[in-house]
Structure formats: C-alpha cells, structure tokens
Amino acid sequence: MNTNRLVTLVDLTNSQAAALDIFLECQREVSRAVRQRAWPCLELALEKAGAAADAVQSAEKDRLEAWYDFLCESGLPDNSSVFRASLSLPLELRASLNDAYRALRLSAMRARIENESLSAFVGSSAETLHKAIETVFPERKGRIYGKSGKTSHAGSSAMVLDTAL
Question: Does pLDDT of 126 surpass 80?
Fold first, then answer.
C-alpha cells in the first residue's frame, strides 16, 4: 500500500482542524464584542470570522478530495466511514487516521458549541428587548394590516437602543 495518500489525508485533516480552531477563536471574539456591545470591534471580528470560515471551507474541500482519493486507492466504496477505512489499514497506520479525525470532530464540536452559545445569548437578548418594546409601545404589538389586507409596520420611525434594560 502506498502511504502517500494517507499521509496527505492526515495532514489535510489536521490542517482543517487547525483552521476550525482559528475560526473558533474568531467566534469567541465575535461573542466578546456582542456581549460588550463593542460595535466597531464586532465589525472587525465578523470580518475575521468570515475570512476564517472561508479558510475552513477551503480546507474542507481539500480534505474531501483527499478522502475520496484515499478511498479509491484503498478500493473502498465512497460511502465508507473513517472507522471502516481505518480497518483496511495496517495496525501501525490506523492511529494516525483515527487521531486526525478525532481532533477534527473535537474542533468542530467546540465551534458548534460556541456558535450555539452565542445564538442563545443573542436570541434571549432579542426576546427580552422585543418584550420590553411591546410593553412600552403596545400599539406595536402583533401584526397590523392595512386597507389592502397586507401587513404594514406600526410606526414609521426607527428606534435604536444602546443600553441594557
């Protein structure tokens, strides 16, 4: 068995895990900026997170290509799992593939948890703000329909709040 494709796959998998870790740090910067209401910092953090997301996407594309090349060379079907692919390897090579994919799964899980945490914070803040606005401006509560039967906005003036309620 030629181990070049395996080494390439493991390297690309580790590169993707590293890219996800960088993305995770960017997500944490976004989260800090949102929680501190530092809007200029949020804009910069979002730009960095967008660039990091692009890097993760590129790494994912490269890793998938290497994965399918590895499966083809190993004679395994395209829908094979990492576990099944590792069983086709000699015992001394299994650990490198399994460790690389374990690191990738952990990085992806950390990124998902951070994303869900930020989403929950923003969602609860938005819900609290929405309830406060409905209490202060009851005329904005619910949907308002115009003469034609289409929904219309309650007020014509925009409201910007930059304070904690």
Answer: no
